[in-house]
Every structure is written in C-alpha cells, then in structure tokens.
Specification:
The protein has 323 residues and is mostly helical. It contains 10 helices and no strands.
Amino acid sequence: METPTKGVLAAGARLLLRGWRVLVWAYVVNLLVGIVAALPLAATISGILDHSLEAERLAKGFDLGAFFGLLMQPEVTMSNFVPGSFFVSLLYLVFMVFLTGGLLADYRRDQRLSFGAFLDACGTFFWRFVRLLLFMLLAMVPVGILFDLLNRGAAKIARNSPRDSVNYSLVLGCMVITALLFFAIRLWFDVAQIRAVAENEPKIRRALGKAFRMTIGNFFSLFWILLRIGIVALAGSAAALWFFVKVIRPEQVGLTIVFCQVFVFCWLAIRFWLRASETVWYQRKFPAPAAFAEAPILPGPAESEPLSLPAPPLATPSGDTSA
C-alpha cells in the first residue's frame, strides 16, 4: 500500500500550480481589500503631511521614528479607520470561505473544474463552511482559556524561583502546548472541510465527529505535512527579512511595496499548498468508492470533461449506459 505521506508535498505543489488562477484571484481580492482598508488612514495622514516638515522623511523613505511620531498626532485616531478596516477584513474572510468549497472540489479532480462547476461547488459548500468556521471559533475558546491559565501558573512559579531561566522555560512550554492544540484544531477543521466536500456531507456535526476521529488517529502524519510546509514558510520568511534589511534601501519605496506584495502572495500560496497536500493525503488514506455520488458539483451530462469519479446513477439520462 502506498504511504499516505510519501510524495504528498510534491503532489500538492502540482495541484497548486494547476489551480494558479484561483490563487491569483485570492491575491487580487486581498490587494483590493487592503487598498480599501487603507484609504481612510491614507487620507488622514495625507492631510497631516501636507502641513508637516516630517513629510520628506516618509516620502523619500520609511523612517520608523517619523512614522510613530505621525501616529501620535491627535488627528490620527483608531476610530477613524478601524471600523472600515474590520468590515473589509470580514468581507475578505467571507470571500475566502466561499472560495474554499470550489478550491477543495477542484483539488479532488484529475483535471481542472470548469468555471461554472467551480462556482457551483463554492455555493454548495459555502453555508456548511460558515457553520464549520463558527464551530472552530467555539473550539478555540478553551484553548485561549487554557493558555491564560498556563501563563498565570508559570508566572506564579517563576516568582518563587531564584533563576530567570525557569521563567523563560515555562513561557516557552506554555507556548508550545498552546501551539500544538491550535494546530490540532486547525488540522481537525481542515479535514472536516475536505471530508464535507469528498462525501458531500450536509450534516456538519457528523462531519466534525468523523473528522475528529480521522485527525486523532492520523495526527502525526497530518502534523508531519504541516511541519514541513511550516519549515519552508519560516525559512522563506527569514530569507525575505534578510533581503529586506540588507538589500532594500529605505528610499526605495516602490521596491518595498513590490517586495511586500510578493511576500503576501507567497504566504497565500503556502496556505493553498497546505490545503492541496491535505487533500492528496485524504484521497490516499480514504479513497472514495467507485459509486460515490457528488451530484451538486459534478458537470452535467452534456459536458465531455473526463472525471476522476463516475457520475451518479441519478444524473445519467435514461437509456444511456455509458459510465
């Protein structure tokens, strides 16, 4: 039997490259949302800099001291732009939840879904994924409470210890425990989303229950996928930070903007790569039966695209005996 984690990252990367259009759309919407969110702050800062001697220090480069001094101005208040930024961020979250259904359905095919089938999958699983998101937020609450309790206990032990190293060790231990719980919950809900698409599961609590058993029983193989992609992401971030500090000069504002946008695009690609790799792992670990029905997201009988799974019997026209 093929090892579920062998070659998963390479297969996930191939799926990512095949579906590059979805990644580009996710980035474009992210860019537009960022521009809209920054407009109120940009308008406020522009009004201040038009009458400030510090404008040149920010127009010809990025001066951290001048920037913090600008934020201390009474005209720059969080109430001017935080509500709008929160709204557009929430809008982008809704967009990504909508996109995920089509993305996972596309990753399950041997060939790319048509645009209509992709949108059909997005609409089919949108409300299911919204409910999964709400359940995930509820699951995160105990993790936050546990982290707070662990921090308080670590602080109490550190106060009674004569060595400073004990404090750092306890804080690090609390962070590791909380991070592992967070990753476990994140993997659990990732598997729940993949299973909901793979089996067209309309009952979210049933999908969560079965995904929980799958995640617990295969946690180390799933975490190994996440760990390797995380190492790639951290190494890339460290290299990007070095490049930003050592190569890009403060007066190169245009290059700085381009660099930051490339960085954001790469982080989106990392997340999509993880979802593609998880989908490959699920297909290898839990292969679908031959007569599996996915009626809401399969192309109609008139389309000639080859599918990885046969169409369900109810979708076959009467008298047609082709598979």
